[in-house]
User: What shape does this take?
Amino acid sequence: MSAMSAEERQREIVRAARRTGAVDVADLAVTLGVAKETVRRDLRALENHGLVRRTHGGAYPVESAGFETTLAFRATSHVPEKRRIAAAAAELLGDAETVFVDEGFTPQLIAEALPRDRPLTVVTASLATAGVLAEAGNTTVLLLGGRVRPGTLATVDHWTTRMLAGFVIDLAYIGANGITREHGLTTPDPAVSEVKAQAIRTSRRTVFAGVHTKFGAVSFCRFAEVGDLDAIVTSTLLPTAEAHRYSLLGPQVVRV
Assistant: This one.
């Protein structure tokens, strides 16, 4: 069997990362029959092309126009970190009476952490979040209509954005697939991007909540600038210096 070309090897690495959620340098070296340094070189090349993010000893796939993780997968990764972030984000509720909760697993955890001892109206495009809150005392749930995307179980398209445009919401909890100081907040799908952008336009305050791995990642569709956010909630795994750079653009940055 002839040795794989660098291009074939890199394609195989991306496939493996997308299939399993992460790859390990040592494992890849064995599987591909090459030196670890060769794998590291491949990962550097793939990171430069925006396909993976390198970690200590491996890499994980970047979500892009051609690849997006499902809600089921997101519910299994970085869960303790997501729970801490969600609890801290819920504490930023203040005196808000109407709240938009974005699609995704971290926003769903925020919805679960919202207080049940006072009247609250939650607007969401997420079937999962609507289901979690439907029986909560004191909470009124408004589910935005539209086309349901299978991987994320959330509604999109003009029905969703039109319904959203009719509201004035006190606070929006927004998720993203990536956030950078240069490109702002991004997501792979244009239809999802439209819903997020409309939610931000409709809301008086916007809080972005996301795990540290979202920072520095860039996806396909930009829907907000960092300066559009009132607060960013993430974990202490985002370095202090980096958090400070984001705060200089306007938002309060909370690390838990």
